[in-house]
Amino acid sequence: MSENTISSAVIIGAGIFGVSTAVQLLRRGVSVTLINDGPIGNGASGRSLSWLNSARLRSNPYHLLRMAGIDRYRTLSSQIGPVDWLQFNGGLTWDPEGKGNEIEAAYAHEVSLAYDARHLAPSEVAHATPGIDSTAITGGAAIFNPGEGWVDLPSLIALLMNEFTKKGGILVTDEGKAHVLVENGRAIGVKTTADKSRLADAVLLATGSAVPAMAADLGETIVDGTPVALLLTTKPFDHPLKAVLNTPRVAVRPTPDGGFAIDADWAADEVEAQPDGSYEVAQTTVDGLLTEASKVLSGHPKLELASYAAGRKPIPGDGDPVLGALPNLPGCHVAFSHSGATLGLIVGELTAYEMATGKRHPLLATFRPERFTK
Ligand SMILES: Cc1cc2nc3c(=O)[nH]c(=O)nc-3n(C[C@H](O)[C@H](O)[C@H](O)COP(=O)(O)OP(=O)(O)OC[C@H]3O[C@@H](n4cnc5c(N)ncnc54)[C@H](O)[C@@H]3O)c2cc1C
Questions:
Q1: How much is the pLDDT for 1?
Q2: Which amino acids bring their CB within 6 angstroms of ligand 1?
Q3: What residues contact 83, with CB distance under 8 A and at least 6 apart?
Q4: Lower Cβ count inside 10 Å, N or C end of the chain?
Q5: Which residue has the CA at smallest separation from atom 12 of ligand 1?
Q6: DSSP 3-state assignment of 152?
Q7: Cα 267 to ligand 1 centre (Å)
Q8: Across the strands, what pairs with 251?
Q9: What is the DSSP annotation of 59-100?
Q10: What is the rounded average pLDDT of the residues 303-314?
Q11: Phi, psi of 56, rounded to the nearest 5 degrees
Q12: If residue 255 lies in a helix (H) or strand (E), which one and from where to where?
């Protein structure tokens, strides 16, 4: 039985949140137009490390949402069968020596939540997961989380867009940027730079790092903490690493083609944003990241660069997801979050539920945009 209170929606932004919500709305029988300012997935979703996890310390509501996110990936995985772009081979993490080391606290917290976690001495790591140089592990211990994994978001987006097209969704990628049309205090559709308007019963802003500025244009406050990020990929080569590694100097995960994706906060801090909107990445930064990755891998392989991409990584000012209807603009919803790979499927599902039914899902209670104005 349909619970829908709308029949049409326009979504601005075809990253994982926009695409995932679009497909969920179509499954509910809502007609959808999806507008992106260029090829789909050309934002953060096209250059993400995409570790699927709820590791370490965070609020219980956020943990619950992330676990629901991982659950939806498990379901997808069993529905589509084995693919090279969605893997659950665990995650291994360790911290630096000394004061900043949170491994004991993180492990105790994870155990208290029954989040599958193994506390390992460096010498025990090889039994849990292959491909790591255990002498690189600092702080005397690591945590292995066997239930974690990674996804290649462009592959997921391609799968979802296949369903989007089959279900009659309309995709617009050649009209430049879109903005929300407002009439009598309500969102009534969107207008693109090409001056074309599309009216709909509900609008979703899923524009990644552009959400806070677009919300501000509509008179709404979403505090922004978005930094610049950098992701490298290596050429394929033969190596046993299967898990996602999160270490003090580098994060590494396998890629579908047999290479690795690599990032690190220190490397992102070295990227310089240019006035024309481009990003300058120094050769020393690229070389440094490849070196750091090699140090944590068994056999210290020589890693060859395949590609790199820099750009903004959506992160709300308080670190928590911003999801739901804008408080002062009926008909307009937002989806803006860090960890959008882990949350990609569940955010699409719950956002579509709220847009289609007009109801508020209890799991999103602490993530609503009005927290910034209260
Ligand atoms: C280096 C890096 C590492 C990451 N690591 C992880 C991780 O390990 N685990 C995890 O869960 N998450 C991770 N993330 C986060 C995750 O990738 C993002 O949260 C997620 O991809 C965001 O998706 P999105 O749909 O919100 O935004 P985006 O993918 O940025 O999509 C927004 C789209 O909107 C378009 N757009 C913007 N403004 C307009 C406009 N006005 N009109 C039309 N189109 C517009 C953009 O071009 C873009 O295509 C990482 C991200 C990065 C960059």
A1: 78
A2: 12-18, 35-38, 42-45, 47-51, 153, 177-178, 206-208, 210, 229, 231, 263, 313-314, 337-342
A3: 77, 155
A4: N
A5: 339
A6: coil
A7: 19
A8: 246, 263
A9: -HHHHHHHHHHHHHHHHHHHHH--BTTEE---EEE---SSTT
A10: 98
A11: 70, -160
A12: none
Question: Which of 296, 303, 308 is closest to 268 using CA atoms?
Answer: 308
Tell me what pLDDT residue 18 has: 98
Q: 41 near 14, Cβ under 8 Å?
A: yes
344 alpha carbon – ligand 1 mean position (Å) = 10
- Residue 297 DSSP code: B
| CB of 90 closer than 8 Å to CB of 242 | yes
Angstrom distance (rounded) from CA 274 to CA 270: 13
Report d(CA 272, CA 278) in Å as an integer.
Answer: 9
Residue 247: CB partners within 8 Å, gap ≥ 6? Answer: 93, 94, 136, 296
Helical pair 16-27 and 153-166, crossing angle rounded to 10 deg: 30
* SS3 label, residue 132: strand
Long-range contacts made by residues 176-184, C-beta under 8 angstroms, separation at least 24?
176/37, 177/37, 178/10, 178/12, 178/35, 178/37, 179/12, 179/214, 179/217, 180/12, 180/205, 180/214, 180/218, 180/329, 180/332, 182/218, 182/329
Pocket test for ligand 1, best of 33, 35, 36 (most atoms within 8 A of CB): 36
**Whether 137 contacts 297, CB under 8 Å:** no
156 in Cβ contact with 344 (< 8 Å): yes
Measured from the CA of 192, which atom of ligand 1 is nearest?
42
Q: Which of 175, 206, 146, 161 is nearest to 37 (CA)?
A: 175
Angle formed by the axes of helices 340-357 and 60-80, to 10°? 90
Q: What angle do CA 338, 339, 343 make, to 5 degrees?
A: 115
Two structure tokens written together for 88: 């659950």
Q: Which helix (H) or strand (E) holds 139?
A: none
C-alpha 348/C-alpha 3 separation (Å) is 17
pTM metric for this prediction: 0.98
How far, in Å, CA of 22 to CA of 6, rounded? 14
Q: What is the pLDDT of residues 236-270, one digit of tens each?
A: 999 999 999 999 999 999 999 999 999 999 999 99
225 and 122 Cβ atoms separated by less than 8 Å: no
